[in-house]
């Protein structure tokens, strides 16, 4: 009875062993089918020796593809890969820089800077640096001022002015190429510059049409004029600081001599100044600029008796040109 029991137990053990072996074989086949490629860092010099040491094969296992025992496998190397957004240190058996970057799925373009060069071999404990280069165009505009042109208008009364055309500012554009490395601006280069918008001149019509008018003087006489101006009026005499008894044109300084800005009132223009009388533009001075006249007297006493202070916005009457 004990023999039968021992034989039965032995038979069952054999069956369990066979079933376990079958499952082990099937699991091994399935595992290898699902994992057709492996990452292996070489610690030996040949493919076969590394596969054996890593328990991928045993020395007697049959392989469809023969393993050349003389073929050398590069040893794994430690490499630091640095980009703008990441830094990683990896073991790799790839030979050059491009292969390492591609294996890590690090993208770069022809514009980017890779150090060392893509075709250089990886050195032990080496370092790869990828600098991303971006170029953009930028424009800057500055204003171009317009000029003012004065044209004579025979249909406009003498002394009158009218804006015929308003001035318009122009624009000057400069284009720059901006170079960024890892997002930081490192270069700004002028590419070209041009007038992007032409300025438009301001045109002023100046009347030349003579229309004779008359104003009655205090003595009842008539003064014929063609133009009026609103000016600032002061008085002077030979005793004033910087003055003499001769005018800039060489005339004797006396009543009837008037200093003007010749750019506003031409020399030798006759005019009537209310409160002073009739005079002629025969003098000028450094402080006489714009709509400003200085009426002359022969002495300080005469000036003091007839004129005091400064008169603003004083209307004067200019005789018609001959």
Question: What are the main properties of this structure?
Answer:
single chain; 322 residues; alpha+beta; Ubiquitin-like (UB roll); Resuscitation-promoting factor rpfb fold; 3 domains; 4-stranded mixed beta sheet; 18 strands; rod-shaped
What does this 3D model show about the protein?
The protein folds into three domains: 77-131, Ubiquitin-like (UB roll); 135-206, Single Sheet (Resuscitation-promoting factor rpfb fold); 211-318, Barwin-like endoglucanases. It is rod-shaped and about 165 Å long. The strands form five sheets. The chain has a six-stranded mixed β-barrel with strand order 13-17-14-16-15-18. It has a four-stranded mixed sheet with strand order 2-1-4-3, covered by helices on one side. It has helices at residues 2-34, 47-53, 97-103, 300-306; strands spanning 77-82, 87-92, 113-115, 126-131, 133-144, 148-157, 161-165, 170-181, 184-197, 202-209, 213-216, 222-225, 227-236, 257-259, 270-273, 277-283, 292-296, 311-318. It is built from four helices and 18 strands. 17% of the residues lie in helices and 39% in strands. With 322 residues, it is α+β, with helices and mostly antiparallel strands.
